[in-house]
Amino acid sequence: MPREAESRQSNTHVAREIAKLIVTGVWQEGWTLPREIELASQFDVSRTSIRESLSILKAKGLIAARQKAGTHVRERINWNMLDAELLEWTWAERPSEEFARQLTQVRRIVEPEACAICAERGSDADLARIERAYREMDAAGMDSRAYSEPDLRFHRGILTATGNDFLVAFGATVEAALRMSFELSTLNPGAPRKSLPYHRAILDEIWARNPDGARRAMHRLMDLTERNITSALSRRRSGEAMASAEREGDA
Amino acid sequence: MPREAESRQSNTHVAREIAKLIVTGVWQEGWTLPREIELASQFDVSRTSIRESLSILKAKGLIAARQKAGTHVRERINWNMLDAELLEWTWAERPSEEFARQLTQVRRIVEPEACAICAERGSDADLARIERAYREMDAAGMDSRAYSEPDLRFHRGILTATGNDFLVAFGATVEAALRMSFELSTLNPGAPRKSLPYHRAILDEIWARNPDGARRAMHRLMDLTERNITSALSRRRSGEAMASAEREGDA
DNA sequence: ATGCGATTTTATGTCGGTCATATTATCGCA
DNA sequence: TGCGATAATATGACCGACATAAAATCGCAT
User: Which of A152, B46, B199, B205 could link B213 by a cystine bridge, Cβ 3.0 to 4.6 Å?
Assistant: First the structure.
């Protein structure tokens, strides 16, 4: 019998729970997981479901199984951190500054170059799609929820326009980064909208078919994004400090 | 009863077979797969095994399932092409020039920057590990098999030294690229060894803690790699043309 | 006692079947 | 002809048993 209310898609749910234990380091690299039967009783599902969950985590490089020897956590180097779900689970469970820093760093590496390629080789249809996303961002005004969705399409559009499947796949990472930014934007509601003119500059450069300009424009947007995230995180830190000071005051 | 000899790990095996059908376009984006029961009889395994295989492909973003509606191939944008296995399957089934071009392009974007970060922030222990890999490459001489293994460690070492988990994950992509280069090197046995002085230059720059120099040095290696791959592929093309001409001559 | 080969044990891997659930398709009625 | 009730169906979950491989153990011979 399934546990109770919150057991929607048990399969994905269990996979996420186990993944969280791994990415948070509760179950460390090299450790052997409990047996499948024990996991089944711990998570209150059948062994079949556990096995399907484990095969998801195997596919993402988190674990490996050997007959008789058991299932162990693989070393980090094998974790596919560029995977959409794994990214989401990691941030959801442990929204650390280090994670944010690394995510921003890798975006700074990839997106400006992708933008240059887009300016050089993107089709007019590709660019039109990017422009449409820009217009929707503009139309969203100060509603940061309505803003973030076309924002993602803008960035994905650039990656798609490169015609490079690997850069397209990088869209999953960008998506995680934007979701992260969106969450942090509650600490600074005006921030997202400030990126609009930077997006405009990118759009102009790619329409002008100017790779160098496009690269620089995207680089400036990345700079802004980094500043926003840094300041949001420091706000969060001081917010947490204040909250814990209050808690101590209560006692 | 399993089919016959070549059914080692049926689970992974079936997943790979289905993945190949998808990446080669036999089963196109948006199409609905056969029912699980039909797949089970097609691949001569139980429905349980099919479900585990499908959950692997779900985890890699290739397919999605909805109750009653069936399982369909997701659009390419959702495929996690940066995944180690998916990369391997794609190249194994369809070693196209386009694939090689894209893989090289994304390496050119990521690795020089990673190299600069490595020069700036890598620990001495990290650099020592990279140097060890270099020495083994040197010791391998003209044996391109023995050369390629430390070659991968060299590049992975740089990515690891950045301290960025996402760049570390990119090691899977580099691995696929190097395996590809290795396969192509049979067409030009001397080529791999020629990269040694380029690796040496990288090593010197990162020991000198010179990010700009390291970036440039890695960039030059990427240029060389691209030239090697291009020439190997054109050799392969002309080889194929000759072979087919011979076949026609036979008839 | 001690190294080593045979045997047992055990955890993952595979199987077939049943029931649950969601969603589509169909049927029947107004 | 529209629409609500009903049936059909494909995935989702569960169960119990057996297969297989590798680790752990046992027993034999040295």
Answer: B205
